[in-house]
Every structure is written in structure tokens, then in C-alpha cells.
Amino acid sequence: MKNTQTLICSEKKYTYNILNSIKAEIELTENPFDLKVEELFDMAARINKKRSFLFVSKVLGKHIPVQPQKALLTSALLAAGYLEKVKGKKAKSKDALLAAFKTNDFSYILEPFIDSTNRPLIIGFAETATALGHAFIDCFETADFFHTTRERLLNTDPVIRFEEEHSHATSHRCYIPLELLQDGREIILVDDELTTGKTALNIIRSIQSQFPRKEYTVVSILDWRSEEARADFKKAEDEIGITIHMVSLVSGFAKVNNEKEIEEEAIVSGPEERIHAEVEYIHLPNYFSGIHNPSVSGDGKVNHSYYLKETGRFSLKAEENRDLWSEARNAAEFLLSKRNGSRTLCLGTGEFMYLPMKIASFMGIGVSYQSTSRSPIYVKDVPGYGARYGLAFPNPEDKTVNQFVYNIPPGLYDEVFVFLEREVLHEQLAAFLKELEKTLIPSVKIVFFSAQRGEMHE
């Protein structure tokens, strides 16, 4: 028996044997876009006592490299589903979106297709769904967006906070203008996958306790909540007096059993062959706006480098987001002049996903996109497994936080652009650069978007 395999029992039932140790049984109940499930995700084993498994998305641009346009189209499909299922309106661009998604036609030009009669507040969950949520607002003429964050700001209290019990990093914080939550309009929560839905319920209860309203929508690529978990949503609706709409690309039930311990060899990422890459440091011209909110690392060190307003961490309006597209294109043209290979990886870092993804989508053919991650996953080079290669290193911005990047096969790329929201010193990048040597990528370009206070336009 192979270490991991997928058995398709019927059109709607799938069984995954993960590293011969975890058995996942999936029953599909809703597939409104008639998508191929095996093209949406692989599965992997998490190094996490709270949850042993992970749905590793093939369309999100996090743990598995994607063409950046594919990830952007994923959010657009979710927006089309929202418009039709929740608002009862036909998404005029749905057929074209779906065709582009299924055929990988990345010449499709996305424009907002949800008009100003809908003006929701959209929230993306850190860190995995920051880009998914941000790309969701691409489809709205009028809306506001922010994403939750694991960052701790100096002398600043979050407006709301909530917990994600199963996550490797559980605390979410929201540093946003208070008035965003005070008008009682619909809130749309965007996440990549629901297994229990507790994270969504936690933030709904946190918001509702301070800023009550009548309507929420939860949007995710995958929805695997059990009957009991779905009943919890209905119970919350009745208790709080709200309506919670649910939208997903596919929905069903997932039953996962740990059958035995993971083999120790699964932690090993493969041969230790290395290559000494040429490293170039690139400071983007001042395309984007800085926000000076010093952060505090796990060991108490203060970082005064700017965050970017355009990430949405501190909120972003739909019209500001549309202005961002032209700036992203300008940045892409600048970086395109730095390309010297035909196989290019653009690598976002942590929560900093959407802007690198959008820029990557304008950088020409032969470009793949993914991001670093906080999630520790068992690595094993087995076909069909969700984490075949892996690198581990301390976060350059906070050495107390471990980061990982998965599924970069050695020798696949000619170059990698590493996108960092905030400038760091060379020595803070040393461990990461040493790990990157295992990918055998000969050219590494470190791209800084912001600098220290006094060096950037606010």
C-alpha cells in the first residue's frame, strides 16, 4: 500500500489514506459549479495535537504553488456564488469566470460585478485567507475590507479579538476604525476551509457582543462541517437572533480518524543538496502608502518599519482597492525588468499574500505564486501527498515565530522573488536564505515594500 493515496468510491465519496496513518472519508453533498474535487486540494498530516490533518488547497496560493490568476479567480467564483445564493441575483459574469477557472484561461480580465446596492464589510482570516478575502472585495463596486492579524502592535489595543482553537497560532486581532463595525450592515467572513466552523462562530459572537447586527455570511472554498457543527450554527442564529448565510465552492462531510502514529521519517524533507544562490535586494519605488504602527515581537523587540495601508490589515475601501490595481501593475512592470529566468516563483510571506499575488499576476508567463506559512506539516515526497517538500526557518521579522514553505521541488525554478512587507536586516534573513539553498534556485531576489520610519511616504 502506498504512503498516501486517493480512492474514489463513487462520484461523491472519496477516501484519503494519509501517510498510512490517518484516514479521511469525504462525502460531497453540494458542488454548485461542478468542480473536480481532486483539483481543489490534497491532504497532509499536521504537526498539531489539536488537529492532525490539513486540507492543502491547490487554488489558494498558500502551501502549493499556483498560477496567481487561478487564486484570484477562486475568490471571484465565491463572490458569484454569494451574489446568487445570498442576494438572489444572477452573476452576469459567472459563466465566463467559471470557464476561465476550469480551462486556466488567465487572459480573463476581472472587473467588479456586484453593484453598489450591496455594501458589506468583508473580513479575511489570517493568515491563510488574507488574500482570499482581499481578492473577494475585487468583485464589489462598494464595500470595506480588513483582515485579522496575529501581529501585536505597540500601545494599541485591537477593536475585537477572538480565538481559533485548532490553529498553531490561536489569537486573532483586529486593528480597525471603530466606525466600520458601528453601522449594523452585513458582515462577510472569508476563510479557506470550514471543518467545525468554530472560528467563524467565535468572531461572530465577539462582534455581536459589541456591535450587534442581523446578518452575517460565511464564505469558504471548502465546507466540511458535521451535522453537529451545522446545528451549532443554527443554535447560534436562534440564541443571538441573527441570520448566518453559508457559501462555498464545495460542501459535504469529512470524517477523519487517526489510525496510528506518523512515521518519524515523514519529518525529513529529502536530500540536503544545496546551491549557493546569487542574492539581490530590491526596494520597490514608493508605489504604496505606509502606516507607522510599531509592532512587538514575541521576545519584546519593537519593530518601527512601516506596514502598508494597501494590505487591508487596517481596513481598505473598494475604491481604494481598485486604485491599488494600477499600482500593483506599475510594481509588476518594475519587477519584470528584474526577471532573468523563464520559470519564476513569487513568494509571499505570512499574512502578506494578496499584494504579492496581484503583482505576480502581472509579471508575465512562467510565474507561479505561493506563500510562507506558520503551519507545521509533516513532509514526505510521495505522489498525491500535500507537502512533498518543506523548508523551516525563523520568521525574519520575529525570530520567536517559526515559518515554513512547502512544495518547492529542487531545481524547478530559475529564480524566486521573496516579497516582504517590511524591511529587515540581512542577518535576519540568513536562516531563511540558507534554507532556500535546498531548492537549488540560483537567483534569489528579496523585495522590500516598506522601510523604517522617516524613509517612506505616509
Description:
The chain has 458 residues and is α/β, with parallel strands linked by helices. The protein has 2 domains: 68-255, Rossmann fold (3-Layer(aba) Sandwich), CATH 3.40.50.2020; 266-305 and 316-448, Rossmann fold (3-Layer(aba) Sandwich). 22% of the residues lie in helices and 29% in strands. It has helices at residues 68-85, 94-103, 130-137, 198-210, 227-240, 318-336, 354-361, 426-436, and strands at 5-8, 13-18, 22-30, 41-45, 53-57, 121-124, 144-147, 160-163, 171-174, 187-194, 215-223, 243-258, 278-283, 290-291, 295-296, 302-303, 307-308, 316-317, 344-348, 367-371, 390-395, 398-406, 415-420, 443-448. A 9-stranded mixed sheet has the order 1-2-3-12-11-10-6-7-18, with helices on both faces. Strands 13-24-23-19-20 form a 5-stranded parallel sheet, covered by helices on one side. Helix 7 links the parallel strand 19 (344-348) and strand 20 (367-371). Helix 6 packs across helix 7.
